[in-house]
Batch of 4 targets.
Target 1
Amino acid sequence: MSRKSPNRIAAACIAEALATELAAGAVRHRQEGRTETAEALLQHVRHHRVRAIRLRALAGAEHYRTISALR
């Protein structure tokens, strides 16, 4: 039984999009004076941005392994 490998690049793009939307929400909350909520949203922004970086790194490593195996 074979399992399709995850599309890490697509997942990274989704994580970046989530981070961008959350950052916009944090700005709105901060402008409205809700700094605690804005800070909580920024924690989620950081999480999603780091996740995107890790996913892209994994995709790059996977690609490198694939092309190295062909040599």
Note: Residues 8-70 form one domain.
Target 2
Amino acid sequence: MKMEKGLLLIITIYTIVILLMLPLREVGYHMDFGYHHAVRDFLQSGILKNHTAVVPSFILQELWGALFSYLLGFSYKTLHISVIVLFFFGIIAFYKTLRELNVSQTKSVIFTTTLLVFPHLLRFVFTFMTNIPHLSLELISLLFGIWAIKRNSWRDAFCSSAFGMFAFLIRNFGIVMPISLFIVFVIKSYYDRKFYFKHLLAIAIPALFIFSAYYYWLIVGDNITSGQYYYVYNHLVETKRHLFPPNIKYVATYYHSYIGYYYRVCLFVLLLFTILLPLVMMLKVPSLETIKKSKGFLLRTLFIGSVLFALIYIKIIQDHGWRLEGVYWRIYLPLIGPLSWGHVLYRYVSGNSYFLRVILYFLSYATIPLAIFAGGVMIYKSHLMFFELKKIKNFFNNKLLIGALVVAGFIFQKQLAAYFFLYHESAHDAFGLWVFWAIVLAVFIHTFVFRHREKLVSLDAYFSLFFWLSLIFQLFMLMIYDTGLDFEYMFALFPLAILIFAIVFREAPLSPFRTLAITLTLVLIGLHWARKDYQSIGWAWERSAQQVNRGLIEPRQVGINTWAWMPYWYYEAGYPIELAKQGGDRRKVYIHTWTEVPSLEQDHTKPYLGIGECNTLEWSERDIKIIDRFYERQLLFIKKEFCAYLWQAK
């Protein structure tokens, strides 16, 4: 069968992007030192067992990395190749999913390219972190899920569930895929007046089998790691008390946790809106007449997005104040701002003038309505696929919006009171909180359950339902896992947001000039930032590791801009010390075990080195040029200082 041009173009783009990121570097990144060591231990022992620092389920990625290491030899470079290969299949699956949604080839190529070159995501392709392998399997699961819904195929449903559970064996979030598809077919059975027993069974079998097998291996085989105890299980015990308090009086005690959960979800949703901002800017601007006719629609969509945005900033202002130069403003404003790539842009101007930073801040503020509009349209138009709202005569007739307004007012009042130290926790407030949420739930049920259509509008409704369920369930897991606000936790949500956007704006025309300009800009910024970060850290790691292995320096004497360096060398030395300190209870072992190694106390008689290049005879200008001219002065300066120290030591 002849390959369509769009797919061929995506394969070409992916290949070019990977080639431009070369050369591969022998470098760790953040937590992947534990994943690296897990593959190493498996190759040496043949026993499938996670390293003590591993937090996600990971075992499938461990086997995948071991397969490539068996074929190509064990190294960080080999592990990076394993991720690159897997993500290739994920990107192809994402493109084909867009085409199955009847999105044009042009839009499918643009949307897929946008996902590929998002800077943080592309950077993680060149690591052995779990984010990209999990995302790749999720994308394959989504494709089979769409085929299952479109073709009414139980075989595709089985494959979708299986790939979702394969993703679960890398990160637990993968379990949302079979759950979401199962719910879709339950609802489909209701509307079609036909019980899809084979489909539901095909989804349940791989999900239950893999889930049971994994937890048997985990619990009965005593394979829970210290990292999983510390970051997951201990935290879930606390979360359970928040979600299911033993007594109504305890609810007031956990009030701030509830607000934190709500705040976290609002932030994640807003981040999803911002990732879509470049796509919104590619659309043709509607005529003034069209805008006038859509005043009510625009008000409703802007309201939905504005409530989310307001809740975020109320929390940020409460926690960190109004100072423009405060560290949290520097982080969150470009992040939420919402230039979807503002965080990367800030990295470019952070070393320059205050004026440029202020310009970026105000540019971020200026783009807020676009992101809010994108998110509001997605939510509202998806809502219309399922529910008839014939009686909306004005803004306040929509119960959903009234409920959202009450939520916003309640949270604002509590946050404002807390900000001015007027709030005092009590059982009375806790009871009021329960009543409040009961009212919100009743409004939700009345709006969404008792006013549904006799039959869903189209297949798009089922597709959107599948995507929204997957997104919402993962948001819930992110909320209770206390994952922080880092971009990597959002990677699995980005394609879901883009797919919903693609359905909603499928018929919207693109502006050819802006589409070309924005796409090229995204590619240049994303590729340049990801390559610069990978090459600079990789170069420093390789040079420093060479000198450590020669015995010229100790790892603790080298400072590299990646968290993985110290635990890569010292985690296992510190683990027994930390374990003994905790009375042999591995459930309490903190992951920063290397801080317990006595020899790591700072030796002030020796300089702390920035980037390691120890032998001047092996230095070449090519080593500098291959990284980036942006870093040339800094690297040359550090090289001279470092080598001067080594010559003195000799």
Note: The longest helix spans residues 512-549.
Target 3
Amino acid sequence: MTERINAITATAIGVAFSPAGDFSIQADIPAGSSAVINVEGQADAAAPWVSLGGISASTIPPMRRFAKCPNVRLTLSGNSDGKTIKAWSGE
């Protein structure tokens, strides 16, 4: 799996990537954290980013599977307590 987010900041935006097929996102969010990993996609580079889903500390298991999307990025929000938040992608 490729690490896409590794942050202690309140917010972060990962680098966009283009999965070759269906893909999974796994996150490491400590219990009690209010942080959310948002999975965003766009059908074309000129299109706006839209939410495909998210993972929080209460998502069990902390992994979600998504259909192929031309452009994908992960964003971090709500990490107000500054905990280390990590997320990976895999195909």
Note: Strands lie at 2-7, 12-13, 23-28, 36-42, 50-56, 63-66, 71-77, 85-90.
Target 4
Amino acid sequence: MGTASCQILRTAGINNGKYHETPKNHLHILPQFSYNFPRNFFNFSSKSLQYKRLAASCLPSTSQQQNSSPELAVLLEVEGVLMDVYRLGNRQAFNVAFRKLGLDCANWTEPIYLDLVRKSAGDEEMMLILYFNRIGWPTSLPTSEKGTFMQSVLQEKKKALDDLVMSKSLPLRPGVEE
């Protein structure tokens, strides 16, 4: 087992690998973060650790710390914080999913996508229902299989979005690289 500890996660209320709520008025009493990872949990390439959407980098902040063991910082990405996946990625991923499923007539332009997001409050299944109710469902699709069809579209969309994010073709938000 490898062990990681980090001061940065104290305010998040993480202790012994488990998350717990820290009352706002008790932030000065911060728990120690410590977590045991299985040996092969992370891919150790250079000084960077990566596991799906969990990324950690060792960055000494002063020349004195460069000689000591580096601290470990863990960055937990919440979708949409580091890059604008909602505006840029999701629409593109839906269009890729439509093409993979042979739905060439389905192509969401930005105005269509934004209208669907607004009307569905961001619920992707509702976005599909609204869209196909407007343009018509695929003629080969029995009414009883609409749910299965939507799940297929959403699975393909998720794969396409993961590929898009991993390709690094979406720009990072300003200030993220600093």
Note: Strands lie at 2-4, 14-15, 18-19, 35-37, 43-45, 48-51, 54-58, 72-76.
